[in-house]
């Protein structure tokens, strides 16, 4: 515990999150999904997308932007393709169900691709690929979002932070897990740093005219991955997320979204799109050879030479270590979230 946070055991924190959503009439299926996704992020140290977002989601549920009791529907378009309608509910519910469906399709077709429409912000994309990897599938998940990131060389918001997440099962161990924003940092981290009173790193955020800043209160947008020199890479990847999540599903383009935060309109649904993909190793090289290949790859990766004073890690290694630590020591939450969840 410090002046900006308190530490809460995972089980108690999870129950208080559930209580907050249940108190405003959120359906059990929806609150199960959002709690699972928020706890995933908070346990793995992705605090920007963790339980701090419960305050925002509850406000949107009460305001009518989000449907408290959505009825999801599925339109299967082929042996390996489907579109899921989220009924304007919490994106976490739609995304978990979309990934479950993608895995089911992959059982027979080898791959399963599901687009999601009429959804909303779904938090950490890694939560959904992890769910697939735990079932034995290689997976991908992405979403677009409201404009917070300029184009490379741009001076106004254009793309969202548009994450790309991937995961793969590892025999006898935690999955290989890679979850990244296509921006330098997520905008939610700027908001978190405002709550914590912390300065931002250099070269990750800009003010309203595109000048880089470190004061989170001055930050109006976050730069694309690669910053001022190589930001064309992040901007291009953000476009991939928009292509798969919005254009392929016929949902909202990044510049056309109602702002997630700061808009007076909290009653109009945002029609957000997502895209998830599951791949069955059994339909490619086969399970035994896939498992052996992953173990051999990770052994070589973790054994690779490192520079003095550094170490090399596989995607997910840092997160699993943080999960183990937080399960043992508790999860830090900022004071604003602590008050909302009834801890102070």
Automatic annotation (TrEMBL):
Classification via Gene3D superfamilies: 1.10.1530.10, Hypothetical oxidoreductase yiak, domain 2
Q: Which family does it belong to?
A: Belongs to the LDH2/MDH2 oxidoreductase family.
Q: Output the Gene Ontology terms for molecular function.
A: oxidoreductase activity
InterPro entries given in the database record: Mal/L-sulf/L-lact_DH-like_ah, Mal/L-sulf/L-lact_DH-like_NADP, Mal/L-sulfo/L-lacto_DH-like_sf, Malate/L-lactate_DH-like
Where in the sequence is the signal peptide annotated?
A: none
Q: Which PANTHER family match?
A: MALATE DEHYDROGENASE, OXIDOREDUCTASE-RELATED
User: What protein name applies here?
Assistant: LDH2 family malate/lactate/ureidoglycolate dehydrogenase
Q: Which organism is it from?
A: Kaistia hirudinis
UniProt KW Oxidoreductase keyword: yes
Domain of life (superkingdom) = Bacteria
Q: Does the keyword Magnesium apply?
A: no
Q: Which UniProt keywords apply?
A: Oxidoreductase
């Amino acid at each position: 515990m410090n002046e900006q946070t308190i530490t809460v055991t995972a089980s108690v924190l999870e129950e208080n999150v559930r209580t907050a959503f249940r108190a405003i009439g959120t359906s059990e299926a929806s609150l199960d999904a959002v709690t699972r996704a928020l706890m995933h992020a908070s346990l793995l140290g992705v605090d920007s997308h963790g339980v701090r977002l419960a305050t925002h989601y509850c406000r949107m549920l009460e305001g009518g932007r989000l449907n408290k009791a959505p009825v999801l529907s599925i339109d299967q378009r082929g042996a390996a393709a489907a579109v899921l309608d989220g009924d304007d509910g919490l994106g976490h519910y739609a995304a978990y169900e979309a990934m479950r469906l993608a895995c089911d399709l992959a059982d027979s077709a080898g791959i399963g691709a599901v687009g999601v429409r009429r959804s909303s912000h779904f938090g950490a994309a890694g939560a959904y690929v992890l769910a697939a990897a735990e079932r034995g599938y290689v997976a991908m998940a992405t979403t677009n979002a409201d404009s917070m990131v300029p184009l490379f060389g741009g001076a106004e918001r254009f793309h969202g932070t548009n994450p790309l997440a991937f995961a793969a099962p590892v025999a006898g161990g935690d999955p290989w897990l890679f979850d990244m924003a296509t921006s330098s940092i997520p905008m939610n981290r700027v908001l978190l740093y405002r709550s914590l009173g912390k300065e931002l790193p250099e070269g990750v955020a800009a003010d309203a005219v595109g000048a880089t800043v470190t004061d989170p209160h001055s930050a109006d947008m976050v730069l694309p991955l690669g910053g001022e020199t190589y930001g064309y890479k992040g901007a291009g990847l953000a476009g991939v997320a928009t292509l798969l999540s919005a254009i392929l599903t016929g949902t909202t383009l990044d510049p056309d979204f109602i702002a997630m935060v700061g808009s007076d309109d909290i009653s109009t649904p945002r029609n957000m799109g997502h895209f998830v993909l599951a791949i069955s190793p059994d339909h490619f090289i086969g399970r035994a050879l896939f498992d052996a290949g992953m173990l051999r790859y990770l052994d070589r990766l973790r054994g690779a030479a490192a520079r003095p004073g550094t170490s090399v890690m596989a995607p997910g290694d840092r997160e699993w270590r943080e999960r183990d630590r937080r399960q043992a020591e508790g999860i830090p939450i900022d004071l604003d979230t602590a008050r909302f969840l009834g801890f102070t």
